[in-house]
Design a protein that fits this description.
Rossmann fold; 512 residues; nine-stranded mixed beta sheet
Length: 512
């Protein structure tokens, strides 16, 4: 989970990620591969393509329109076991192929999350694909209840169900109380739809999009959580995918409500790597001349936030949210993102010293999304998808035990990665987790130091999908590589595969 827990390297939406146990009943899995009775009207619906702009301030719609894309709303059932019942809409965009030599293939795109909007992805992915984009109809899809699709908002005062447990037992209890309240707000405001928000139903929506487009098969590019969505789709609808690229790969056997637990070590290493980068630029940022000195500065900020919320512009940043600033900006090891984190740290340090500094534009975006109701929609959807997939009652004390057990090796990441979230207080999912046990040819992409979707997950999927190939970027802590990172080797491998459908003969290493 652009983090959003698991989305591409994002700066403002911390995306999540990980339980596997349990299997979908065999009969249900078999039924999912066929066109269920009553779904014909959704599969055969006419698509009313129109302009994408919704109003004068709609920058996304304007950029789509300027590029020649068109948008539409598709109708899907809220509950796939009752296709004659209530319906919702799924927002899609299409940037049509320019090539005429062959019939264009639809390439569906997902930006991760869970809950990341993807409507504008034909623009970003199309730019990364270059001439290859002309072979495809690029299809952006806002998953159910995300973005321009039928919305969900639980009315939260914060925008993330991922928060740090803080320094003490008392702060852990406060974070648990927050999660209990978030879950109750969703139950009270949207309890009728929560049972139908899941990756499985998003995959079923994808198949409605495929059918409505008149395609026998789809190609697919998914980042981060989108890799899990793609894997679930192949399990529910075998034989309906053509070319698949999964960038930032989740091992579905490790997909659970504490999705970031496996990434605690990677986040700790990413923080240290950033501290080393920052210490080499002490004359610019004045945060410490050594790695340890910079890390000491970060700890000083955290201790101050635990004593009293830091005043940063209009925001109040306490010990539960100060670490999220780092988590949000550690998804990329590019110089630009590292500089933004160093700048944010300077602001937080002034606040920790008793000042009242104004945040940078990037820090404002992070804090607005994380600590105010402006992030409620995305946070609500992210929690609803993850908890609708795998919510499990573990008992509150189990989280505290895990935090204590891992805090020594991961003092920054353990209180985030192992903390309780709203899923502990969620109603049981409507379906058991999907077990992905097929073998699909796909191109997998991952960096070895990815702090969201850890490299071991990509290796596990590579072993399970024996016909796939893995492109590895060693020594990098980037999350989301294709089109984001400037690694020409990765971009070339992905575009070559999308151009001719031929996977490399063997796994590939792409060095920076």
């Amino acid at each position: 989970m652009r983090m959003t827990i698991c989305g591409r390297a994002a700066i403002a939406g911390a995306a999540l990620l990980t339980i596997g146990a349990g299997t979908m009943p065999a009969a249900a899995a078999a039924d999912a591969t066929e066109k269920p009775t009553g779904l014909g009207r959704f599969h055969d619906q006419d698509i009313d393509w129109h302009g994408c702009v919704l109003g004068p301030d709609d920058d996304t719609g304007k950029r789509l329109d300027d590029a020649g894309a068109r948008c539409a709303d598709l109708t899907v059932p809220l509950d796939y076991t009752d296709p004659g019942g209530r319906t919702i809409t799924i927002a899609v965009s299409r940037l049509r192929a320019t090539g005429t030599a062959h019939r264009a293939r639809p390439l569906l795109l997902n930006n991760g999350g869970p809950g990341g909007p993807s409507l504008d992805m034909p623009l970003t992915v199309g730019a990364a694909m270059g001439e290859v984009a002309g072979k495809y109809d690029l299809i952006g899809v806002d998953p159910r209840f995300v973005g321009r699709s039928t919305p969900l908002d639980c009315g939260w005062d914060v925008g993330s169900t991922v928060v740090s447990a803080g320094e003490s037992r008392a702060s852990f209890k406060r974070s648990v109380a927050l999660q209990r309240d978030l879950a109750e707000r969703c139950r009270r405001t949207n309890g009728d739809v929560l049972p139908h928000i899941s990756t499985r139903n998003t995959a079923r929506d994808m198949d409605v999009v495929r059918a409505a487009l008149g395609a026998e098969r789809i190609s697919y590019l998914g980042y981060s959580y989108g890799s899990y969505l793609g894997q679930v789709y192949t399990e529910l609808f075998p034989g309906r995918t053509d070319r698949m690229v999964l960038d930032g790969v989740i091992d579905p056997a490790r997909y659970n409500q504490t999705l970031l637990a496996d990434a605690a070590g990677a986040n700790e290493r990413a923080l240290r790597s950033w501290a080393a980068w920052t210490s080499a630029r002490h004359d610019t940022y004045a945060l410490g001349r050594t790695t340890e000195a910079v890390l000491s500065t970060v700890r000083r900020i955290q201790r101050a936030a635990a004593e009293k919320p830091l005043r940063v512009g209009e925001f109040r940043v306490d010990e539960h949210f100060a670490p999220l600033v780092y988590f949000s900006l550690l998804g990329s090891d590019g110089d630009g993102t590292r500089a933004e984190l160093a700048t944010a740290t300077r602001v937080l340090l002034r606040a920790a010293a008793g000042g009242h500094p104004e945040p940078s534009a990037v820090l404002t975006e992070v804090l607005t999304t994380m600590t105010t109701g402006a992030g409620s929609h995305q946070g609500s959807v992210q929690a609803a998808i993850l908890c609708g997939d795998v919510a499990e009652k573990r008992g509150v004390e189990s989280y505290w035990r895990d935090i204590r057990a891992h805090r020594g090796k991961a003092p920054f990441a353990a209180p985030l990665a192992f903390n309780a979230n709203a899923c502990e207080f969620w109603d049981a999912p409507a379906e058991r987790p999907t077990v992905v046990d097929n073998d699909v040819p796909a191109l997998l992409v991952n960096t070895t130091g990815d702090p969201r979707t850890v490299y071991s997950g990509a290796r596990q999927v590579r072993e399970r999908w024996s016909r796939s190939r893995l492109v590895t970027v060693p020594g990098s802590a980037q999350h989301g590589v294709f089109g984001d990172y400037g690694n020409t080797c990765v971009d070339r491998q992905v575009n070559s595969y999308l151009a001719d459908g031929r996977l490399p003969k063997r796994d590939v290493t792409c060095r920076n």
